[in-house]
Amino acid sequence: MQLKPNAYRLNETVKSVETMTRFALAVLALASGVYTYLGVRGLLDGSASFVFFAAIIYSAAVSVAIYAFWSFMLRFVPLVTSGVQRLALFLTMAIGCAMIIAMSSWLNAAALAGSAALEQHMAVTLQGYAEDLDAAHANALASQSLLPDVQRAAERFAGLAADERESGALTGTTGSGSVVQLLTQMSAQMTQLSTTITSNRDAVAGLFEQGSTRLASMRELVSTPGAVAPRSDSFQTEAVQLSAVIAALQQTDIAASVKRAAADLSAGFIAPVANGQSADLANRQDQVMETVRVSVAAQSTALSAAADEILATPAVEQRRFVPLSSAEAVIRYWSDFIPSWAGAISIDLLPVVLVLVLMIVNDAMRQESQSLAEAENITAAEMLRAMALFRQMEAAGIAVATGPPGQDSASEPEPAPAAPPLAAEAPGADGTVTPIDAAQRKRTDAPRPA
Questions:
Q1: Contacts of 398 (CB under 8 A, 6+ apart)
Q2: pTM
C-alpha cells in the first residue's frame, strides 16, 4: 500500500539530490576552468608571472560564469510552464551555450589535444615538403632524358666522319676533307652537350641526398616523444634548409640550356668551304654538307621540342612552414580530433541534461498533483480532526451542507436533532479512561490496527 502520493515522493527526491546537483555543477565548472587555464596559457605572451596571473583570472571568470549560468537555468527552467516563456528560456540557454563554447570549449580542446594537433601540423607539412622534393627531383632529372638523343647524334656524326675519312662513304673520295671536318665539328658539339648533361646528373643526385637527409631529421622530430615546442622550433629550422635544397634542385634544371644549345646548332651552323681539288669533288662536298646542315637542323628542332616539354612542367612552389599555437592547430585540424572536441564541449554543456531532467520531473509532479483527489492526499489524523469538527458543529446547531456545491438550501432535508456534546459522549467521563486528542497525532503516523 502506497502511503504517500507520487508527486510528494518526487518532490522529496528532488530536494534530496539538490546538494549533489550543486556539487556536480561546481566540479564541472572547476574542471572547465582548469582546462581553460591550460589552453589560454599557450596563447599569452610576456613574462611568466604575467602569463600565470592572466590565465588564472580568465579561467576563474569562466568557472564562475559557467556555474552562475547553469544555476540560473536549473532554478528557472523547471518552474516555467508557459510555452512561450519556456521557449524564450530555451533560446536564452542556446545563446549561453554558444557563448560558453566560444570562451571555454575551444580552449579546453586545445588543452586536451593541443600537442597532438601540433604534431599533426608538422606531419602534414612534412608530407608537403616530401612531395615538393620529389617533384623538384623529377623536374631536374627530366633534362637527363635528353642525354640519349644527344649521345646518339654525337655518335652518328662521329661515325659518318670516320666512314668518310676511311672509305669516302659520302663523297666517294677518301681522306680528311671539308665533309670530315664538318662532321667532326658536329660530333664535338654534341659530345660537349652530352658532357654538360652528365655532369648535371651528379649535382642533382647530391642535392637530392641532402634533401632526403633533411626529411629524415624532420620525420624524427615529428615522431620523437617529449615537449612539442622545442621540436617545432627545430622542425622549422630543418624546413628552411630543405626549402633551400628544393630551390637549388630547380636551379640545376638544364632544359633551358639544352634548348639554347640545340638552337645554336642550327642557327650557328657554319659549313666549311669545299676543298676538293676538282670541281666534281667540290660539288659533291657541297651536296654532302648541305645534307649535313639539314640533318643538324632536324636534330636541333627535335631537341628544342623535347626541351620545351620539360620547361612546360610547372615549377615547384616555394613552401613555408608556419608555426601554429595549440589552439590554432586544434581549430585547423578539428576533424582529426572530434573525440577531444566532444569531451571539451561535454564538460561545459553537460548541465543541459540536468536542466532537462529537472524540467521533466517538475512537469510530472504538476500533473500528479492535478490528477489526485483531495481524499487521496489526506492523512488519518486529518480525517479524525475533520470528524470531530463536524460533530462539534452539529452539537452547536450549525447546519452542515452535505450535498454538492450550489444546491438550494430550501430543498435540503430538515436537520437531525442536536446530538449531545462530544465531551459528554467521550469515554473517560468517570475518570477511569483518559481521552486522546486526535489532533496531537503526527501526520506521518500510520493508522493503528483494529
A1: none
A2: 0.61
